[in-house]
Specification:
The chain is α/β, with parallel strands linked by helices and about 400 residues long. The protein is built from 16 helices and eleven strands. Helix 4 crosses helix 5, helix 4 runs parallel beside helix 6 and helix 6 packs across helix 9.
Length: about 400
């Protein structure tokens, strides 16, 4: 007999659905179908599309495009897409200010669909890296106006110096983790927390991946600062040792880290330092990932459909990674169903003021159903997954 439970429709507060401008990789319809199939009914979509979401007009366009989800062949009912604005220049912050303070019905409606500001301390996909003056002004304005600010925390100078030295000596994709070293993330998080302290900004660390970064967040919380963070499934379940089998399919920013960092992230979940698990769902085509120089392959992996089954597998006391050498983390990777609700619904709902309730939409999960992840059977347009062939338990009905 099936072991069925009901959960609130879950939230992924960090996705890249690639529309507009990059729809050969993914689009709102395909990726929303993937999210819904994985038990996720609300997503917060990032600004690095083409054009980037840095103007009122660009946000309006995304909101209009999102309406087609309800009218698509997938007929995804009550699927909720929210959007982050971005800023690489000070003028982009003015657009966000207009949305937040606008009195017209149109701007008030846009504000309801906007979950905050995303800034990049260094370039990643879409070259959205901002200069220090813009970043400082972003923290000041968001602190003044009560706008949640999310940052991709990698130090541009450290990455540049370290990356150049390594890039000329090897084309091994595993070098990517050394080109964007843990020190880069730690330095950027420290700078961001200093700004959050100075301006009282509600600050959220995107895809935190290092022991040092986690400790900085832990200390900021003890200080009473409004600092939160998220971790991704790929950093929870993969390490630098997985480059050997994944190659460029394991390339993302921030990159894969050590087993010690992986264990620290699970420890952060256990002690409450980690607030959210979100995917940084970032699809690219297989051709893009596998063509040419490995170190020039685009960074990012899909994950919105596999996040919940992976977490449910750990909640069942199992470890999904098929490599026996990867199972040493099992004793440190602990999570309960209630933790999944906290990390993937309650906390992101609160942090980004999404206003969802546990009865807006519910999902039914068969905890006893086991299945094997195959990219070709998932709904994302890209058709692949870094978790290919992994056995998981917990099927979304």
């Amino acid at each position: 007999m099936s072991n069925l439970i009901t959960l609130p429709g879950l939230i992924d507060c960090h996705v890249h659905f690639r529309e507009p401008g990059l729809t050969h990789k993914a689009d709102m319809v395909s990726e929303s179908a993937a999210a819904a199939a994985g038990g996720v009914t609300t997503v917060c979509e990032m600004p690095n599309t083409v054009p980037a979401t840095v103007t009122v007009e660009a946000l309006m366009d995304k909101v209009r495009r999102a309406e087609k989800i309800r009218n698509s062949e997938f007929r995804i009912q009550n699927f909720d897409m929210r959007f982050f604005m971005g800023a690489t220049e000070k003028k982009h912050l003015l657009a966000l200010r207009d949305i937040w303070r606008g009195s017209s019905p149109a701007l008030q409606q846009l504000k309801k669909r906007c979950c905050g500001l995303k800034v990049f301390f260094d370039h990643s996909t879409g070259n959205q890296g901002a200069d220090q003056e813009t970043i400082t002004e972003a923290f000041r304005m968001c602190g003044e106006m009560g706008i949640p600010l999310v940052a991709h925390c990698e130090d541009a100078e450290i990455n540049s110096v370290t990356g150049y030295g390594l890039r000329v000596t090897s084309d091994d994709v595993s070098i990517h983790s050394k080109m964007r070293p843990p020190e880069s993330e730690v330095a950027a998080i420290k700078r961001a927390i200093d700004l959050a302290r100075e301006y009282g900004t509600q600050f959220h660390v995107a895809h935190l991946s290092t022991t040092g970064g986690l400790q900085l967040v832990r200390e900021a919380k003890k200080e009473g600062l409004p600092v939160t963070c998220e971790v991704t499934p790929h950093h929870l379940f993969l390490t630098v040792e997985d480059y050997e089998t994944l190659g460029t399919l394991g390339k993302m920013n921030p990159p894969l880290r050590s087993k010690e960092d992986q264990a620290a992230l699970w420890g952060g979940i256990a002690d409450g330092t980690v607030d959210c698990v979100s995917t940084d769902h970032a699809p690219h085509t297989l051709d893009e990932k596998k063509s040419g120089d490995p170190l020039k392959a685009p960074s990012g992996v899909p994950g919105v459909e596999t996040m919940v089954p992976l977490l449910l597998t750990v909640a069942a006391g199992k470890w999904p990674h098929p490599n026996p050498n990867a199972k040493s983390i099992k004793e440190k990777a602990k999570i309960q169903i209630s933790d999944i609700v906290r990390l993937c619904f309650e906390n992101p709902n609160r942090i980004f003021q999404l206003g969802r309730t546990k009865t807006d939409r519910t999902i039914t999960v068969d905890l006893d159903q086991e299945w094997v992840i195959h990219g070709k059977e998932l709904h994302s347009k890209c058709g692949w997954t870094p978790f290919e062939g992994w056995k998981v338990c917990g099927a979304i009905l």
